[in-house]
Amino acid sequence: MATLNTDIRYIKGVGEARAKSLAKLGITDLRSLLSYFPRAYDDRRAYKKIADLIPGENACVCAVIAGEPRLSRIRKGLDLVKLRAVDETGALELTYFNQSYLKNTFHTGDAYAFFGRAEGTPSRPQMTNPLFEREGAHQITGRIMPIYPLTAGVSQSMLCKAVEQGLAACVDELPDILPEDVRLAYQLCHTRFAYENIHFPTDDEALSAARRRLAFEELFLLALGLKLLRERRTFVAGKQCKKVDLSPFFTSLPFSLTGAQRRAIGDIARDLTGQRPMNRLVQGDVGSGKTAAAIYMAAKNGLQCALMAPTEILAEQHYRSLAPLLEPLGIPCALLTASTKARERRALNERLRSGELSLVIGTHALLSPDVQYQNLGLVVTDEQHRFGVDQRAALSAKGDDPHLLVMSATPIPRTLALMIYGDLDVSILNELPPGRQKIDTFAVPSSYHERIYAFLRKLVAEGRQAYIVCPMVSENDELPDERKAVTAYAEMLQKEVFPDLRIAPIHGKMKPKEKDAVMRAFAAHEIDVLVSTTVIEVGVDVPNAALMLIENAECFGLSQLHQLRGRVGRGRHKSYCVLVSDNKGEENKQRLKVMSSTSDGFAIAEEDLKLRGPGDFFGSRQHGLPSLRVADLSCDLSLLHETQSAAEQLLAADPALKNHPLLKARVELLFELNADAMN
């Protein structure tokens, strides 16, 4: 009998050659084989009569072979087997390419079930290379069949057979890791039933039950792992700060803080003065007030601070906003990026090592081995979703359990924030920062372009600037022609619409230095109109930009549209967002209506979640979390709430999962955690 760790080579019917092909799909042992779930299903339960076949549709047909098959050799390397099958309603012409052995497989009067795409005409139906089996066999017809993602050397039938053999080989190897009371409380099927029916469902209800069970298990394990990660911080001694009088800091600010900002600063102050390291996400429209307050408190306690931003231009922006606030308060600051000259870098590193420098702001350059701190006590990362967890951890590793503050302007619904950032405490900013303008938003069809261009020209004449965002980069991208390409669109605008304005394109395929140069020129008002892809979604502040024009708005998610809209309205000028779309679908109308009616990023994110589902918010590539195999396909919000609640209740009763060793082992496997660290 096989175990879940059994090498795939030793599963009946696989062997060395097929194991190599399966390895390309990440299938190396029995566990990964059974966890390689179908991407879709073919419902082959219904059989059609030949007269009812519809060209272009897949169908199952039961028919009798009429006449002997004919073998034709067309040319070298191409032969055909043609035959005719009949039922009481008509005849079906069947053609098989390069399968000459089939001439001796089919015999007059034998009954077969065929599955394939109907071709030809209703009066003369045909099928090419249909699957077949003896009538009543129900191996490939008369059932729901899985469809798996494939690679070269792996066919659907091969993968189906391997999974069937794998399930048969591990009769006692699929124990229920969920506690029985959890399984019963949430009405979940047993593990064995779930795995059998996610691969080979007996009916729609069985498939639904299997998906729900496996999605629940995934989200439950994720919630447990993240909560255990958070609890580990309880046992780590942080660099506990003394309370700091913030009145000199508040007096020095050139703006008034909102209530939400003051609450976030209160959260940060409690974290810094607590006994464990701060691990906080501040989410929403973020300005520099909270970051500066955190750095001020840490620096006044003798701790050094590091702020990491995803791009040089954003790092420079942070430096320009923070240094004037902090240096007059006795907190020396410096900027470190890949562009910093060697002599400056050596001097900066020396100041860091000696403890003279309180704050360094930079990009990935902060992770370089030569960058060392005397007493790193606070790590701040901006736009967390641009960094992997590994990078965040690498910067923290340069100190001795430093406090961590994560800033993100990307609104994520609270439930999902708990899942994605489950090891972080969350502060939410749901008020516009001081000085931000409400942005008037309009959704219009492309027939409005003349009016939009006239409005853009009027704004530029008043001294303002504009963004135009397109969904693709070049005409060569394999997308429909009507989607405007950035480079071609910028050229068209320059030649045909605004020959007297300064127009420049920017997109993700440009080198970082080229992008930086364009953004600097735009910030310096050397460019009137910036034609861009979503590369400017998280970008430098340009207070003078007053118009955001988004072409083909149906191509973007709601949260992305909100992020793009947030690029304007950052100065004292009235700002506008125009969403252009000719898509008349109901869902698109609803999305654009939401964008036009609210500027609340969290309300928009919630609506986005309803329309798109949670899958788009997840992904190990973005967040450094274990990837989700089933929950991406089928989980809903109620399941997210249920798994959170179940995880909290279980950990309240068994904080280290000592009474649930199988469950603990799976969580450790999922997160690749050191078992000792979780005891």
Please tell me about this protein's structure:
Strands 2, 3, 4, 5, 6, 7, 8 and 9 form an 8-stranded mixed sheet that branches. Helices cover 37% and strands 19% of the residues. The longest helix is centred in the N-terminal third of the chain and has 29 residues, at 204-232. The protein has 23 helices and 23 strands. By secondary structure, the chain is an alpha/beta fold. The protein is globular and about 95 Å long. Mean pLDDT is 85; it is low at 473-484, 615-624 and 673-679.
Chain-wise SSE layout:
Elements: H1 15-23, H2 30-34, E1 40-43, E2 58-65, E3 70-75, E4 78-87, E5 90-97, E6 111-117, E7 119-121, E8 124-128, E9 131-134, E10 144-147, H3 156-169, H4 180-185, H5 191-199, H6 204-232, H7 247-252, H8 259-272, E11 279-284, H9 289-299, E12 304-308, H10 312-326, E13 333-336, H11 342-354, E14 359-362, E15 376-382, H12 389-396, E16 403-408, H13 414-420, E17 425-429, E18 439-444, H14 449-461, E19 465-469, H15 486-497, E20 503-506, H16 512-523, E21 529-532, E22 545-550, H17 558-565, E23 575-580, H18 586-597, H19 601-612, H20 620-623, H21 631-634, H22 637-653, H23 661-671
Parallel strand pairs: 5-8, 11-16, 11-17, 12-14, 12-15, 13-14, 15-16, 18-23, 19-21, 19-22, 20-21, 22-23
Antiparallel strand pairs: 1-10, 2-4, 2-6, 3-4, 4-5, 6-9, 7-8
Concise synopsis of the structure shown:
The chain is of the alpha/beta class. 37% of the residues lie in helices and 19% in strands.
